[in-house]
Structure formats: C-alpha cells, structure tokens
Write a structure and sequence with these properties.
The structure holds two protein chains of two kinds.
Chain A lengths: L2 H9 L8 H11 L15 H9 L1 H71 L1
Chain B lengths: L1 H20 L9 H6 L2 E8 H7 L8 H12 L2 E8 L8 H8 L7 E10 L5 E9 L7 E8 L2 E8 L4 H7 L28
Antiparallel strand pairs in B: 1-2, 2-6, 3-4, 4-5, 5-6
Classes of the chains: A mainly alpha, B alpha+beta.
Chain lengths: ~130, ~190
C-alpha cells in the first residue's frame, strides 16, 4: 500500500459516535472527566487533559509542585547566599590578618627605633 | 564673648577627652599629613574586626595560643605610618595635636627621647601606657623623624610584655631588650659531660 492510500485512510472522515454529545455534556456537568475515562480509551484526550487541570486533585498536586519548586529555589538561593557569605568572611579574615601583620610589623619597627635611640647614648658613653 | 569661645572649645574637646578615656586616641589630626606623604600605611582594626576574626588570625600552637589570648582581648589597633620626601613635611605642631590627648588622666609616659638639631630637624620617640586606676587599657608609640612618622595606638589590656607574645607568630620578629620587653629566661645549662 502506498503512502497516499495510508494517508487517505487516516484522514478519512469518520462519523462521531451517537452518544458523543451526551458524554461531553455529562463530563462538563460533573467536572470529573479525568477520573471517568471514556470506555475503550487508552490515553487521555485533549479534553480530558484540560479537564484534569481543572480538577481538585490535579489542582492540589499542581500547587504542591509549585511549592516544591519554590522551596527548591529558596534552598538553592539560601545555599548560594551562605556560600557567598562564607567566601566573603574568608576574604575579610585574610584582609584583617594581613592588616594585623603589617600593623604589628610597624609596631615592632617603631619599638626597635625607640630602643636604638635610647641605647645610642649608652653605647656612645661606653665606648 | 570669652565665655562663648570657652564653651565652644570645651564642647569641641569633649569627644577628644571621651575617646581618650578608653585608651583610643583621635588620630584624624594626622589625615592632613597623609596628603603630603610619599608612602603611607593607615591601618584601622577595630573591636568588631578583632571579635569576628581574632581567634582565626593566628596559627595553632603554644605560641599561637598566647598570641590569640592577647589579640582577642584587644579593642582596637590603629596604625599610621608616613614617609615623606621633604624633611620639613610636618612640624612638631602636627604631632602635638596627638600628644595633647596623652595629657588626659590615665596616660603615663614610660619612654621619651627628643633630639633637636641645628638645622631645625627634630626627632622624637615616646611610649605611653594607658593605666586608668592601675588597670592596663592601651599603649601608644610615637616615632617622629625628619622624613618619617609612625604612630601606633593599641587599645585594650596590653603591655609591652604582652606585645612581645605576638612576636614571631605572624612573621613579626620579637622585640626584646632594654627592659622594654622582658627577655625570655635563658635556657637551662646543659648537663656537664661525663
């Protein structure tokens, strides 16, 4: 069979079942179409999917999913913020350590100068 | 008029006196010297920085523990070091603004050396301890030379011996001798060889 025939068969007009309009109206009225699959249907139709979104169960799981996503975003953001804060603390600690080292070095140099000035007359006198 | 002027001067001196009460000196008088300096180091390590990082600043070990003990009790370390190309870059009046604060109660000058040369140059070395009520609250070093000025103000319970404990910990050589910092006890004599 050529592809033309297959295509023509697939697109051939088919009559809708006689009870289709009743079933659609019944689903709309009950609002629980997702939980009452059409007899013989193996997958959800477009109508079934959209109705599922509107159902309370689906709505609940969707809300939970949204909250979980939000919680995940918050957790990732908090983790990132903590990591950034820790890194900043490390940088700041290194800066303070270096400043302390320089400060003590200058203090030491100043003390050495003071000592040398004080010891200079004594050294001269002893010579 | 005189009364008003006195009140204004008194009001202006209150913050200086107040800051000198806790061993911290107002070093802002030296800011104008920074503009003339060819090289400068200005270090301000306040109590919050020491509280936050004090314990992690020095490595572990017996000497580090002693240094950490000293550092964590400090309330601030303030250092100004200026080098000048011109030997007349600053005058005694500039440093007298700092020295006036040291006349506040509690400050004791323990070392002083002043030299005046014929060409007008001067040298001044001073060490002060802040001991209000006999309790150590700070230390101040001043070294003024024609082309260099160093000022160190350490606030907190520290003396020269405690300062010596910091030597050799952060790559700083120990400062000993002349009685300024007590020398460590000599090592015990080696047992005689049989």
């Amino acid at each position: 069979m050529s592809i033309d025939h297959e295509l023509r068969d697939a697109l051939r007009r088919k009559e809708a079942p006689a009870d289709l309009s009743d079933r659609v109206l019944a689903r709309i009225n009950t609002g629980t179409a997702a939980t009452t699959p059409r007899p013989g249907a193996t997958g959800s139709t477009a109508l079934g999917s959209s109705a599922a979104l509107g159902s309370s169960t689906a709505l609940g799981s969707s809300t939970v999913r949204r909250w979980l996503a939000a919680a995940a975003v918050v957790a990732v953001a908090a983790g990132g913020a903590e990591r950034y804060y820790t890194q900043q603390q490390a940088v700041e600690a290194a800066r303070v350590r270096e400043e302390l080292r320089v400060a003590l070095q200058i203090t030491s140099d100043t003390l050495v100068r003071v000592q040398s000035k004080l010891s200079a007359p004594a050294d001269n006198g002893s010579r | 008029m005189k009364t008003t002027l006195s009140l204004v001067v008194f009001t202006l001196l209150i913050p200086i006196a107040a800051s000198a009460q806790d061993g911290k000196l107002n070093l802002s008088f030296l800011d104008r010297l920074a503009e003339r300096a060819s090289e400068k180091q200005e270090i301000t390590i306040d109590s919050s920085m020491l509280n936050s990082f004090g314990r992690g600043l020095v490595p572990q070990g017996p000497k580090g523990d002693a240094a950490r003990e000293v550092i964590t009790q400090l309330k601030g370390i303030f250092v100004r070091n200026y080098e000048f190309d011109d030997s007349k870059a600053y005058s005694m009046d500039d440093i007298n603004a700092i020295r006036k604060q040291l006349s506040a109660p509690g400050w004791i000058r323990i070392v002083a050396n002043e030299e005046k040369k014929k060409n007008g140059d001067f040298e001044l070395q001073e060490v002060y301890l802040f001991q209000p009520g006999g309790k150590l609250g700070g230390i101040f070093f001043l070294n003024a030379e024609p082309r260099e000025l160093s000022v160190v103000n350490i606030v907190g319970p520290i003396d020269l011996a405690a300062l010596g404990a910091l030597g050799g910990v952060l790559g700083i050589p120990s400062v000993q001798g002349l009685g300024l910092v007590p020398s460590p006890p000599p090592p015990p004599p080696a047992p005689p060889k049989k």
